[in-house]
Write a structure and sequence with these properties.
Blueprint lengths: L2 E11 L6 E8 L4 E8 H11 L10 H11 L3 E11 L2 E10 L2 E8 H11 L3 E4 H7 L1 E2 L10 H23 L6 H13 L3 H15 L1
Parallel strand pairs: 4-7
Antiparallel strand pairs: 1-2, 1-7, 2-3, 3-8, 4-5, 5-6
């Protein structure tokens, strides 16, 4: 079976499932997206890895794994989403140490959080993408279950709009106030708020 490389398109809070986040993976050489529902902790960990300017005061679990692996010369070469059963994705982490390759079973959210930290590519099999992949902002190739479809619609429309509205609320603060708020948000591990504040700071520096 042929592998298809994926990139991370975005991550968004789901309004239809309490405490759930939707991670969208994008086909590199195509238009299909692979939606994956993940938990809040994993969503934060992935968001931190994507936001290079956000540094937690203490290492998160995936950061600890990266430090541990670096210390013992273990490298994550790639992540493969290899199976889909009843809406649940199964993944493998391909590791290498002393030129010996090992395959480790992992939750997809954990595997992707680690792939980002190791700058490792993410793949899935063509048949999985054909089964679960969708086309966004165009007529969907297939209909998703209602709850999942609402999550995708939230990512495409409502979430971006609400993010813009929330971000606008920081325009009244001075740069020094924003920097203090950013530090406080990071210390409290409110990384979604920190990302919004950082965006506003970045706009001021342009």
């Amino acid at each position: 079976m042929s592998l298809v490389r994926l990139n991370i398109k975005g991550i968004s809070y789901s309004q239809t499932q309490s405490g759930a986040y939707a991670l969208i993976l994008n086909e590199v050489d195509g238009d299909r997206k692979l939606p994956i529902i993940i938990g809040a902790f994993e969503a934060q960990s992935i968001a931190i890895a994507l936001e290079k300017d956000l540094k937690p005061p203490r290492p998160l679990t995936h950061d600890l794994f990266k430090s541990f692996a670096d210390r013992f010369d273990i490298v994550v070469k790639q992540v493969i989403i290899h199976k889909l059963v009843d809406g649940v994705f199964f993944s493998s982490i391909i590791c290498e140490r002393d030129k010996i390759e090992e395959i480790i079973d992992a939750r997809t959210s954990d595997a992707i959080a680690l792939a980002l930290r190791f700058q490792a590519p993410i793949f899935t099999y063509k048949n999985i993408l054909e089964k679960a992949g969708i086309y966004l902002k165009t007529t969907p190739k297939k209909e998703l279950p209602r709850t999942d479809q609402q999550v995708i619609e939230k990512i495409l429309t409502g979430d971006e709009e609400s993010r813009t509205k929330t971000s606008a609320s920081y325009t009244t603060f001075s740069l020094s106030e924003l920097n203090k708020m950013l530090e406080k948000a990071v210390n409290e591990e409110d990384y979604e708020k920190a990302a919004l504040i950082r965006d506003e700071i970045s706009k001021r520096k342009k």
